Automatic annotation (TrEMBL), chain A:
<feature type="transmembrane region" description="Helical">
    <location>
        <begin position="43"/>
        <end position="62"/>
    </location>
</feature>
<protein>
    <submittedName>
        <fullName>Putative repeat protein (TIGR03943 family)</fullName>
    </submittedName>
</protein>
<feature type="transmembrane region" description="Helical">
    <location>
        <begin position="12"/>
        <end position="31"/>
    </location>
</feature>
<dbReference type="InterPro" id="IPR048447">
    <property type="entry name" value="DUF1980_C"/>
</dbReference>
<keyword id="KW-0812">Transmembrane</keyword>
<feature type="transmembrane region" description="Helical">
    <location>
        <begin position="91"/>
        <end position="108"/>
    </location>
</feature>
<dbReference type="Pfam" id="PF09323">
    <property type="entry name" value="DUF1980"/>
</dbReference>
<keyword id="KW-0472">Membrane</keyword>
<dbReference type="InterPro" id="IPR052955">
    <property type="entry name" value="UPF0703_membrane_permease"/>
</dbReference>
From TrEMBL, chain B:
<feature type="transmembrane region" description="Helical">
    <location>
        <begin position="12"/>
        <end position="29"/>
    </location>
</feature>
<keyword id="KW-1133">Transmembrane helix</keyword>
<feature type="transmembrane region" description="Helical">
    <location>
        <begin position="87"/>
        <end position="111"/>
    </location>
</feature>
<keyword id="KW-0812">Transmembrane</keyword>
<protein>
    <recommendedName>
        <fullName>Permease</fullName>
    </recommendedName>
</protein>
<keyword id="KW-1003">Cell membrane</keyword>
<dbReference type="Pfam" id="PF03773">
    <property type="entry name" value="ArsP_1"/>
</dbReference>
<dbReference type="GO" id="GO:0005886">
    <property type="term" value="C:plasma membrane"/>
</dbReference>
<dbReference type="InterPro" id="IPR005524">
    <property type="entry name" value="DUF318"/>
</dbReference>
Amino acid sequence: MEEHRPLTVHHLIRAVILAGFAFYVVHLVKIDKLQYYIAPRMMPYIKYSAVAMFLLATYYLYLALQGSDHKHHGAACDCGHEPARSLPKHIFIYGLFLLPLLLGFAFPDKIMGSDAASVKGMKLTVKNVVQQPSGPLPTQVEEAVTDVPQSVLEESKTELPASEASPSSELDALFPYDEFSREYADLGKILYGQDVITMREEAFLEYISTIDLYRDNFVGKTIEISGFVYREDDMAPNQFAVSRMAMSCCTADAEPYGLMAEWSQAADFNKDTWITLRGKLEIKKYRDADIIVLNADKVTKIEAPKDPYVYPYFGNITELEKQ
Amino acid sequence: MNPKSILHWKPEYTFIAVLAFVVAMALHPEWLSTDVIVSAARLSTFKTMLISIVLETIPFLLLGVAVSSLMHVYIPEAWIRRLIPKNPLLGIVTASLLGILFPVCECGLIPVVRRLMAKGMPLYAGVVFMLSGPVVNPVVYSATYVAFRSRQEMVYARMGLAVAVALAIGLIVYFVVKRNPIRESRESMRVTFNVLRTPSRTSKFNEAMQHAGSEFFDMGKYLIVGSILAALIQTFVPRSELLAIGQGAYTSHLFMMGFAYILSLCSTSDAFVASSFLGTFSASSLLTFMVFGPMIDMKGTLMLLSVFKAKFVVLIIALVAILVPLGSLLVGTFIW
């Protein structure tokens, strides 16, 4: 009997840990907070995993209840990783598995905000991320024209000062692109004709990149953006950043991106307050670099969105505007 | 206590130190900073990071463990031998492309490679698969493609360099490593498997389940220690201070390797982090980041130590750390 009892205890502990993880995932799904931890495209996998862990837990429970019947398994299937160590070591190893569970249940689920952003380093400019194209490639100009909806061309016609060149080539000259920045240029041409340009959260990063890449064209345009308030120590009292965390799989790979905003009543908003801000785009100096800044007209406090993070957009980025 | 068990005790002290640190922090967050409010925010950030990293790795670990257990019970060794050509050169090339069939990152791959080697896959082929698999696979390809929308050459450079480095290391292992570097306890796998193969279907299922469970806890403990360390670094070490360390032509490569090592990101998502540095770091140092990280990082090292003897792990890390930046520099200088 002495030989089997420890094994039964191990089986019970393992059943509890596995069931604990499975239950924790179910708990997060139920309270609708799973998206605080992993990206939507990863969610199905963790849900399947919860089912698998629950099955494995049931199996361990069954083994524990069977007890000595399965003695031969301890020997036969022990492939070098069956428990055969000292007690403190076991406590330590199982403690490792319990740590995330304890943290998970004991502490409230919080959205990653200013604190994480300051450690990761807020990005207020994405211009460098995208190569500045040198000029339009003559062979692609015609193709590009067909991609721009007629309505946009007409709108831009009214806005642009009269010139001999046709509106489309005028637009092409404003949005030079190369093979790789073509999607940004296409999106830029569409946004250029809009009265109020909304930074859509489905493709937040791609929109910010487009605005930043062709920043000169968008000076004076009205931009609407939603995000949380973030401040750096060296920002002026009327400045803050409207930020989002861009995440691809999990919070470890999340990167904070934001647009600097200026508003006379900036002090009214604490950090991590969620707001929608509408303002005119300007280019200003911050830390020896020219960055785009929104001169706010209107700021509204909003509820934190159900899914606070933004994700890379896998489709063609112009399709959001074409709908 | 025999010498072997004393040896086995060694690494556990690190584990205990890490846990003690975490527990101390959980109990006294004010130790980290005089500002209690900041520390409370930090603790909640740490929790978010740790839970997130653990939740993200669990599916990959389970998949790896499941594949490994099914292989253990149902696939005859002869199949594995046939999968990899006898000719070492062909074998290495085949192994370097196996990732296309099995698209997971290293958390899922290491249990599988361990099993494949126990079933007769040659060491050099196993190492090549283990190094190239986390990069050369369709999931990582599409993630890198999206992250570098405007710099497509990065995608091909990443895939190409990963294959080249894995091939080179495979050849070096083939010619240099003569003694078996697999940890002894693992070798017993093959023996017990042959002797105690159970014929009935239910006991085969039992065996697979038992196996999956044991391997989940066996590999999982390394993964959790790695996740705790990665979460601590993500929470407490400001990137801006790190970035100040190295941006020179050569130092940036060294820095990016260290950065990839401590962040321990999954290869399916590291491209997005890399792309956020495009403005501040040279493209070739980012290539180093994206090839080195999936091959060797903190989480992976701990898992490797569970499979191989420490000496062999050090050899592999050294080779990767030399060949990857060298390759990136060559690509950066002569191809781009």
